[in-house]
Design the sequence.
């Protein structure tokens, strides 16, 4: 919340910012009265509780992961008509990675594989269908995990059968992707109209590039990456914040692996500048919101 300190709406109206994790939030909505949010925070030395009606929400935490699902909170905010970054409609569309990947497939079919090199993926709705995969070695991803969770490398069909037996315990879908002998990951992030690219190199030798020591450095933007961002940011009614993850093989080929929304990690040495861009984006969206224009109209007539 410190990043909003001193900022005002329309240069005149102060902002009151409440920051909390989904686990600390509860809410209720009424079609005529809007949304009331309650935040309860427990610390070793004290407990706090606050209740208020939010005008706007910036969502930076994953709504759903392997162990928690806060979809009900998003539904409540949407039911109450609360504006947000990204839009709550788009946040809902990011609840499951295969759903997002399906839309990336549509982009590839529209503009071609050469212009949009999406990694090949197989989808299994449950363990019963995990009988065969096109290639080995593969990366198996179980459920909606983040930061390497639920991700396993499988070298042969015997290992794939073992993973299928583990998937039977999760009651979730799984996907497989060809394991790329990569030299680095590339992240292309968009915040408002600003686009940056970063390269991440794993120094630990782990096949999961996010594990162990990494080197992160900025990259020059090119038209190829910009065209990918332009296409992806049109999805789900428009994405004000998003990031495309690209894997670059040791042969120089690039593969688009996944896309993240406003819950993306903000990377690199430009973090302080990027957080300022986030604040600018939120204030701009708030000033465009019909809710605040109604308030200003009321204030001017008072």
Sequence:
């Amino acid at each position: 919340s410190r990043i909003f300190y001193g900022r005002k709406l329309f240069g005149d109206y102060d902002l009151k910012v409440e920051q909390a994790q989904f686990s600390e939030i509860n809410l209720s909505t009424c079609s005529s009265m809007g949304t009331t949010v309650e935040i309860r925070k427990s610390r070793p030395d004290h407990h706090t509780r606050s209740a208020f009606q939010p005008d706007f929400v910036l969502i930076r935490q994953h709504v759903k992961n392997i162990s928690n699902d806060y979809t009900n909170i998003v539904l409540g905010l949407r039911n109450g008509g609360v504006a947000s970054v990204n839009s709550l409609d788009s946040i809902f569309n990011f609840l499951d990675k295969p759903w997002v990947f399906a839309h990336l497939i549509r982009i590839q079919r529209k503009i071609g594989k050469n212009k949009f090199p999406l990694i090949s993926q197989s989808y299994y709705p449950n363990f019963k269908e995990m009988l065969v995969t096109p290639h080995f070695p593969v990366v198996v991803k179980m459920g909606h995990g983040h930061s390497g969770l639920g991700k396993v490398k499988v070298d042969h069909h015997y290992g794939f059968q073992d993973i299928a037996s583990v998937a039977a315990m999760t009651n979730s879908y799984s996907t497989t992707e060809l394991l790329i002998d990569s030299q680095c990951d590339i992240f292309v992030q968009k915040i408002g109209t600003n686009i940056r690219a970063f390269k991440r190199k794993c120094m630990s030798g782990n096949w999961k590039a996010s594990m162990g020591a990494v080197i992160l450095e900025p990259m020059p933007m090119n038209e190829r990456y910009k065209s990918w961002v332009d296409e992806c940011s049109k999805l789900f009614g428009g994405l004000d914040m998003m990031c495309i993850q690209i894997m670059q093989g040791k042969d120089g080929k690039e593969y688009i692996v996944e896309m993240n929304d406003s819950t993306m990690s903000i990377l690199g040495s430009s973090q302080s500048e990027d957080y300022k861009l986030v604040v600018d984006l939120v204030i701009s969206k708030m000033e465009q919101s019909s809710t605040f224009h109604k308030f200003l109209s009321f204030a001017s007539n008072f």
Remarks:
- Residues 297-302 have pLDDT under 50 and may be disordered.
- The longest strand covers residues 182-191.
- Residues 25 and 150 are 26 Å apart (CA to CA).
